[in-house]
Amino acid sequence: MCSNFNNVFSWIILLFGSAAKFRFYKTFTDYMEVPVETPDAVVASSNPYVDVNKPTYLIAIGFNFKLEGPLLTELVPALLNLGDRNVCLVNWVNEASAGILGEGLGYALNALPNSKTVGEAVGKGIVKLVNLGLKNDIHFIGHSLGAQLAGYAGRETIKHGINLTEIIALDAARLGYEPPSLYQYVDKSCATLVYAVHCDVNGYALNITLGHVDFWPNFGNYESSTSIRLQPGCLKGTTLQEILTNGNRCSHDYCYKFYVVSLTNPGLFVGSKANNYFQWKTISNVNANNTNFIGPLINPNRPGNFYFVTGSTNPWGLGANGLQPPTTT
């Protein structure tokens, strides 16, 4: 019962401003939090959680996320282990929750509008931090509804003359953002580089080219209404939410898993460029100049749509062996 009251209270707070926080990590269990609207303490000279001279990697995840769920327990340590960066979660756990309304209404009335409200507040918070001395080198990793939040943050910083270095949009949320909509989906206008990875297309995620660079793993599984609509290794969803939304939780989560693996195995997820999947299927010889990588090896000077196939088990990526279209679809 207490948690229900907390959720109601968080919604009331949002009438007057965002209650979200920046969570800066030293380790996964050792962090500091500050309100996104008053983040001044982050740039204090004695702050052991932030080095103002290093780039900052922000993370935002989606509807009903858990602060100790698998996405964060995998992604945060992977980023911290790379070093030479600040790692920060946008903690909007209450604003992104279903709360007492249940999943359908909770998404529509709480999480969806808050992706815009919190995103704009985060953008203002980033501007304040940069103006206070944080290095203007901000990378924003967003999964699902968190990718849409990142888009709003990027638009807000641009209003103040600050461009995010990149937005990495992992399966940007479809529900509430598919045109026509009152909400504006993340796109390449939101940062200097926007690259997107699309896994659960037309399910939980948009089937729209979003960025300067877009990756479409295993798109042959989604090319038509009769396709199996699953990433390799995933099973058909059985939850009511999956049935009603045509989504698949496993395939949706593969998007962040691919990205996490790419941080330590940057050559595994490489795609070849094509105007669309049907053109890609006709490619017999892949030119290395027409390839691009998910993760640290991404080439921002090679825009376009990139296709590849993966295996069905961890670490999934096949490197150059995934560049050839499957022999059957």
TrEMBL record:
Subcellular location: Secreted
Keywords assigned by UniProt, alphabetized: Secreted, Signal
Domain Lipase, residue spans: 51-287
InterPro entries: AB_hydrolase_fold (IPR029058), Lipase (IPR013818), TAG_lipase (IPR000734)
GO-annotated cellular components: extracellular space
GO biological process: lipid catabolic process
Pfam families hit by this protein: Lipase (PF00151)
Signal peptide coordinates: 1-21
Matching PANTHER family: LIPASE (PTHR11610), LIPASE DOMAIN-CONTAINING PROTEIN-RELATED (PTHR11610:SF173)
UniProt similarity note: Belongs to the AB hydrolase superfamily. Lipase family.
Protein name according to UniProt: Lipase domain-containing protein
Organism whose genome encodes this protein: Diatraea saccharalis
